[in-house]
Structures are given as C-alpha cells and as structure tokens.
Amino acid sequence: MRRVIKTSITIIKDNLNSPIAVFFVLLFPVMLALTFALGFGGLASSLTVPVYVSGHEASEVARALNATGLFSVHLGGNTSVVKFGAVFVNVTEGGATIYYPPYAEKYVSVVEYSVANALSKANYSFSTMRLSSPYSYQAYVLTGTIGAMVMSNGVFGVTGVAATYYRDKLIERLAASPPKDSRG
Predict the structure, then answer these.
(1) Per-residue pLDDT reduced to its tens digit, 63-85
(2) d(CA 75, CA 4)
(3) Stated pTM of the model
(4) 132: phi then psi, degrees, rounded to nearest 5
(5) Three-class SS of 128-184
(6) Taking the CA of residue 139 as centre, how many other CA atoms within 13 Å lie in the half-sphere pointing to its CB?
C-alpha cells in the first residue's frame, strides 16, 4: 500500500510540472463540458417558460396560457417544479396562487391576465410567491458533469500512465531524484 501511495504522489507531482498535462486533465474537460452545454443545452426550450397548472378549470387556464406563445403549459404538478425553473399556478374558485422562480418575475403579470381572461373574471384574486434557492438546477448539472469528466479522465488516464512508467522504469528514476520546483 505504501508503494501505491508513493507512486501516486510521484505521478501527481510529475503531471503538475507539465503544462500539457495540466491543460488536458484540468482545463480541457471544463472547456469540453461548456462547449457541449452551450451547443446542446436546449436553447429552443429556453425560449418558452414552462408553466404547470393545477386545480379548478386547469385545462381552460392551460389553453389560455398556451395561446400567448410565451409558455409551454403542462397540466398537473406541484410547487417543487419551481426548483427546476418552471412556474406553477394553483387555481381555485376564488383565486389563484402563482409560484415562480426569480427569472420569471416579468411573466407573472401575463400569467395573471391569462388566468383572469380564461375564467372570465375581472376581479379575480391573485397571490404570488417567489421561490428561490441559492443555486439553479443547471448549476448542479453543470458542476456534476464537469466533475465526472475530470474524475473519469484522471482515473482512466492514470492506469495507462502508471503502466508505462513501470515498464520504462521511470518510477525508480523519479523516486531517486527529487522533483524539480515548478515555480522556477
């Protein structure tokens, strides 16, 4: 076990002295994840705001919200959909409660108008609740993807590198000489 730890420390120190290794192990996976996230991240779905409608005459309200073209409307759901960037509307006979994430604040008035218009009630009672968390769903997904890429790159790469170092007897040479200082 001591040899494995000593070998791992030697390989890590050797890799940190190489700018190419630092680029391909640390920076390249991040750039790759960001490129794929921007290219295939669902830009078309971000042009409409997801809205979930539940309660009294939900299908009428959904039809009115769909007619605006701003929303992609779904029947059902609960307040937990707000964590994923959606607006949730709970319609009752006397009023409606709109739960929304911070970015969707500008759409609340359109939702209120559409609900009142769908139910043909001019003096309909609305209450709004802005629900927020410090991090968005996308922040968790992106950091998890970057972490998985960096970890898998290191785990899969170290096997081949270690085997090559052992075959070429580089480990013994690295262990015999002190690692050079990378700062100068």
Answers:
(1) 988 888 888 899 988 888 887 78
(2) 56
(3) 0.52
(4) -140, 155
(5) EEECCCCCCHHHHHHHHHHHHHHHHHHHHHHHHHHHHHHHCCHHHHHHHCCCCCCCC
(6) 6
Among 20, 85, 99, 92, smallest CA distance to 46 is for: 85
Kindly state the tokens that stand for 172: 């013994």
Partners of 92 in beta bridges:
none
Six-digit token pair at 134? Answer: 């410090």
What tens digit of pLDDT does each residue of 92-116 get? 887 889 998 887 888 888 888 888 8
Per-residue pLDDT band for 44 (boundaries 50, 70, 90) equals very low
The secondary element (H helix, E strand) that includes residue 87 is strand 87-91
Measured distance CA(56)–CA(94) in Å, rounded: 10
